[in-house]
Write a structure and sequence with these properties.
Oligomer: single chain
Structural class: alpha/beta
CATH class: Alpha Beta
CATH superfamily: Glycoside hydrolase/deacetylase
Number of strands: 12
Shape: globular
Number of domains: 1
Radius of gyration: 19 Å
Length: about 325
């Protein structure tokens, strides 16, 4: 690779990403703020000429609950923990009030129509690939449904991010059969492994790593793994944590990301930054200000070292493809 690369991927979920963890009645403003943020983020990406993959939960393609009900796959995951089922949950909250929390076809069109943005997949139902009770047939049905709805928007899905970072190598062949060329994998650090069994120490180390630690989050293009399926795996580097309001920690976070981006630019390596748009749902103005600060850093590195901005599908082993 002749230049360093900044790769950005966003896990676009709305309520489908956290329904098992929150009471939607207490989060309506949060998700309404998220909807307003999407155009603002897109404007910043356009302003700084930054490419991005929006790994989108397929259920967001639906316009309303009637369409959602018509698009339930024939084969569903049979999680041992029934509270993880998006289908069970969706059937329990259907009303006009909840449609803005669960569907976003107009936002998807805005993403598609913005230069440099790739619409990827976060599976159709925010499918948990390592939870007890799920299986390959259900995963195949899920990805097929995601592709089916994307095709109505004249899209071919090429990039995938596993929900909750539950990376499952056994499903790479299914990914390839559904047209997926590349998937995001987890950082190599031990505290990013087995995310479905998140322990206290894993959470503590992940939090601390946002502010302190070794310079070990960038990687060379040779580290992009090419699986036997010909699907590639590219590691995430850093989760962009939202604004906390704690000046010292917010400053440390930005400085840590700056140092990592600078290292990638100087050493012609890859730096993959990711987050959820809904992470900006609180303190929206402050989060957008921090994002613009980071994009400004990228622009300086682009001018100084010819750093390039790529979405996931543009990143290839040994180089890039625009």
């Amino acid at each position: 690779m002749e230049n360093g690369s900044l790769v950005i991927s966003l896990d676009f979920e709305l309520l489908w990403g956290v329904f098992d963890k929150v009471d939607y009645k207490q989060k309506q403003d949060y998700f309404q703020n998220t909807r307003k943020l999407i155009p603002a983020i897109l404007q910043l990406f356009e302003k700084y000429e930054v490419n991005c993959t929006w790994a989108t939960v397929g259920m967001l393609f639906n316009s309303d609950w009637d369409e959602w009900n018509a698009n339930i796959p024939d084969y569903l995951p049979n999680y041992e923990n029934e509270n993880l089922s998006a289908y069970k949950y969706g059937k329990s909250i259907q009303s006009k009030e909840t449609e803005k929390l669960c569907f976003a076809p107009e936002l998807i069109k805005s993403i598609i129509n913005t230069k440099g943005q790739e619409l990827g997949t976060h599976t159709y139902s925010h499918y948990y690939c390592l939870e007890p009770g799920q299986d390959a047939l259900a995963f195949q049905a899920d990805l097929h449904k995601a592709s089916e709805l994307a095709s109505k928007f004249r899209l071919d899905l090429k990039s995938l991010v596993f929900p909750r970072n539950q990376y499952n190598a056994a499903y790479l062949e299914i990914c390839k059969k559904n047209g997926i060329n590349t998937v995001r994998t987890n950082p190599k650090n031990w505290y990013w492994q087995d995310t479905q069994k998140d322990g206290l120490f894993q959470k503590i180390f992940r939090t601390g790593d946002a502010y302190f630690g070794l310079q070990d989050k960038t990687y060379k293009s040779s580290a992009i793994h090419k699986f036997s399926t010909q699907t590639t795996g590219q590691m995430a580097s850093r989760l962009l944590r939202p604004y906390s309001g704690k000046k010292v920690f917010d400053s440390l976070k930005i400085k840590r990301i700056y140092r990592e981006m600078d290292y990638a630019a100087r050493n012609k390596e890859i730096y993959h930054l990711w987050w959820h748009p809904h992470n900006f749902g609180n303190n929206s103005a402050e989060n957008l200000r921090e994002l613009e600060q980071l994009l400004g850093i990228y622009k300086k590195l682009k001018n100084k070292y010819a750093m390039q901005s790529l979405n996931m599908n543009q990143l290839k082993p040994g180089g890039f493809k625009i």
